[in-house]
């Protein structure tokens, strides 16, 4: 009984740390909350996270969505909030909000920031944490052509990393039928 209480307390503490870290990475608390509400409304409007994945990335034959996590993708312009999709064939990220940029002909265009990495192109996935603040955990994905992608601010970091590791291992060590 005591073990179960301690285990539940640890899970709750980890979740609270994840929420705190997720909110800390946002620009302002009010903007972060507004973004989360907007994201939730968009997910409901589209019909769930599976449909969001399908709409943004398409689904390949035999592909199954394993896990969806809210997180941030680190970019040179700063962290971008969005959803990380882990499927049986790829890891994909789509920003929560559209981003403005100038097109080649000079007009302002708004698009969602998207990344799609086939699992077979992932060399490794690494876990990392801030030495001074262990609650700040990072996930690095390194591709076979040595590009690296850093994700952070997960609500449930360990669960997301476990799904990623499981998906990668199934591609690297396929079960023979």
From TrEMBL:
<comment type="similarity">
    <text>Belongs to the GEM family.</text>
</comment>
<protein>
    <recommendedName>
        <fullName>GRAM domain-containing protein</fullName>
    </recommendedName>
</protein>
<dbReference type="InterPro" id="IPR037848">
    <property type="entry name" value="GEM-like"/>
</dbReference>
<feature type="domain" description="GRAM">
    <location>
        <begin position="51"/>
        <end position="129"/>
    </location>
</feature>
<dbReference type="InterPro" id="IPR004182">
    <property type="entry name" value="GRAM"/>
</dbReference>
<dbReference type="Pfam" id="PF02893">
    <property type="entry name" value="GRAM"/>
</dbReference>
<dbReference type="InterPro" id="IPR011993">
    <property type="entry name" value="PH-like_dom_sf"/>
</dbReference>
């Amino acid at each position: 009984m005591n073990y179960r209480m301690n285990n539940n307390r640890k899970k709750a503490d980890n979740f609270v740390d994840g929420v705190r870290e997720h909110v800390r990475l946002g620009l302002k608390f009010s903007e972060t909350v507004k973004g989360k509400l907007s994201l939730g409304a968009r997910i409901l409007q589209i019909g769930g996270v599976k449909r969001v994945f399908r709409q943004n990335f398409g689904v390949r034959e035999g592909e199954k969505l394993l896990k969806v996590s809210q997180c941030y993708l680190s970019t040179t312009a700063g962290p971008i909030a969005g959803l990380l999709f882990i499927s049986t064939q790829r890891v994909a990220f789509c920003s929560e909000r559209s981003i403005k940029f100038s097109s080649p002909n000079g007009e302002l265009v708004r698009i969602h920031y998207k990344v799609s990495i086939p699992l077979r192109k992932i060399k490794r996935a690494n876990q990392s944490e801030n030495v001074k603040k262990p609650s700040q955990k990072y996930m690095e994905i390194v591709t076979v052509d040595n590009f690296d992608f850093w994700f952070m601010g997960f609500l449930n970091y360990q669960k997301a990393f476990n799904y990623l590791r499981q998906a990668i291992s199934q591609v690297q060590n396929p079960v023979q039928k």
